[in-house]
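User: Hi! I'm a student and our assignment asks us to look at how structure tokens line up with a sequence. Could you show me two examples?

Assistant: Happy to help. In each example below, the sequence comes first and the structure tokens follow. Example one:
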Amino acid sequence: MRKSSLRWYYGGFIGIVVAVLAFQLIWLPAPYVLSPQLEWIEVINWLYYAVLFIPICWLLGAVQSLRQLKKEANKSKLKVALHYVIAAASAALLLVLTQPLQYLIAALITFVIAVLVIAIAIGYELGIKRGAIYALGYAAIMLLLLCPTGYNVTYPAMTMNMNSYAKLIVEQEETTEQGWIDGVLVFERPAFPIDWLYVKTLPLVELQKRQANEPGISETYSQVVQMKQDANQLAIAIAWEQAGRGDAIQYDGVQVAAIMEGSPSDGVLQAGDVIIAVNDSRIQHRDEFLSYMTRYVTPGDDVMLTVRRQDDIKDIIVGTVVADDETNRPILGIAVQDAYHIALEQGLSLAAYIAHAGGPSHGAMLTLALYDQLTEGDVTKGLHIAGTGTIEYDGRIGMVGGIPQKAYAVGRTDADVFFVPLAGVEAAKAAAPHLNVVGVERFEDVLSWLLQH
């Protein structure tokens, strides 16, 4: 193998180091590419394809090596086989890297195979001593960059134009947006040794010890993707109702969320049961259930609950006891929440961003963007709006993690206002003192502030 072939392999390994560092520090350039038409998160979609340089280098190296070996009379069959494996693995990696989110596990497996075989091929060419020196040096660099540590790291990410991310498929008049609406992301991932350097040199990079029962990467990815999908559907429903387009959320009763040990419901009801009637009185909302219990039931009475359990309807008798905090209030010993489904078949076109895997924290700002698309005029009034928080079925804006990192990311932009759940106001102000932070509890609070300003 000539030096020219080795250079292609070395180039691929250098590309890995550059790609890993770029991934870990991808948030830093965010405020330098910022407009309603193009934000950094969209640019990343194109920059990502630079990683294809790695398998292309290895493929070229393998092809060149095989051509050279063809000319040799006494070529080693093992050496030829190694380069064929490298060529096949590089071609496969090139293919799966074009769809990274769909083939994440396949990409990792193929990548590991390619690295191992290339390392063997280089060692075979250079000899045991020199090959070992190169391998150990590169392994040390990669361990610094990618060795698991038992910690998680959280750090600022970037903003995301919600009107670019999601577009409702509805008949509406074209409107000219004067401002724009940003959600904001925060990155959380397993920490590597180099993250201790980032903690010392970069703002708001935080390490936390991983929990013993924390799910793996694949399970976590599946969970955050599902949460993103749920948040998108809720955002459509809330925006639809707030825009006066009709009912989108249908209430099905009261769901049992938790059962107190030793209570009358323990062993009788199950978490997930949906109560649809009490003593034959139809119940649709949690408030209706609590009101009925207070008005018509005395502590110590038995009540008949009509319950939907999976696909079955059951009548179940449950006793009551007096509440600890109120002597006249009967309780069953359960925590309840509204059960509902979204009855809205509304088309939604979503952009796919490599840097936005999932999660529900964009829900409130997505609701605002969809509301903007469903109503006349420009809800932004020419302002650059940013915010974070989940959207709940009743219009509440829920608390999210990473408030300091998100505030810092927004503070690096020219946003006129940053909406956060009320409980996160102080953390946001501490992280970005110059930022106009506004605490909100409900979606209506956001609309009210925009109307006044």
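Example two works the same way, sequence first and then tokens:
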Amino acid sequence: MYPQVEPYAQGMLDVGDGQLVHWEASGNPGGKPACVFHGGPGSGSHPRWREDFDPDHWNLILWDQRGSGQSTPSVADPATSMEHNTTQHLIDDAEKLREHLGIEKWLLAGGSWGSTLILAYAIQHPTRVSEIIIPAVTTSRPEEHAWITRGLGMFFPDHFDAFRDGVPEEDRDGNLALAYNRLLNSPDPAVREKAAWDWSKWDLSTITGGDNDFEGTRYADPVTRYRLARTVTHYWGNEAFIEPNHVLDNLDRLKGIPGVLIHGRNDFGGPLHTAWEVAKRWPDAELVILNDAGHEIMNGSSMDQAITAAIQKFR
């Protein structure tokens, strides 16, 4: 909708634990603050968000979560420890970034894993959030992880058999994300590479509705493929390092914060019932259901248009 302007400022914020978090600010330095929490976990920020926010009106902040994007040390390096990479660490990083930039309150936007992180941050720091926009709502409950890694097999049995067979036989009836994470941390490069390939094949098939061809996707790059697989399995394998119903049970803390929840009815990886439950427990949120949308945000799609409308609503 708007030109993709270049950032007017960017930097690396030392958040402790040897971690440097990359951030950028674009648009109007004196404008209304908005911050995007990217998905994945591990995908890194995407400049396309600059096209959704009027650069004359918004002060838009993008940041790369620990080990992702331009943040260092990169999770793409197998030697990088993930001991200090949990949901609470990311919440603390976002708050340190807000303080570093001197922002009193900001609008938060982001979907998929970004949804969980936004809601967890807002529950902990409600006075720092002006509004929330979430396309593709998730809360990272154990049943959500189990659905993505096992339940979806009923729709994609061909892809699921290959996915399940990618781990040792003794692990095939257990926590598949954790089993893959062990392979992705193997000292053997060949084992790590195969695990990243197998995990990504399954991940892409559930997002696209069956197509798992890497060509033309972010999964085509082996470094990105490994970083994403290692980060996602780290979080999903450990149930996002939060209590099972932490987000749903604490949505009362968002009272007074207006929000727009946008969800596609055809979202295989994140079925609509999660967005429905969040909307029921957060009276200040509006739920927009899109009958023709899935999990991804495509330029010009109904999901993209709904995000634009929500941003306009909160100008």
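Here is something you could point out in your write-up. The first helix runs from residue 87 to 101.
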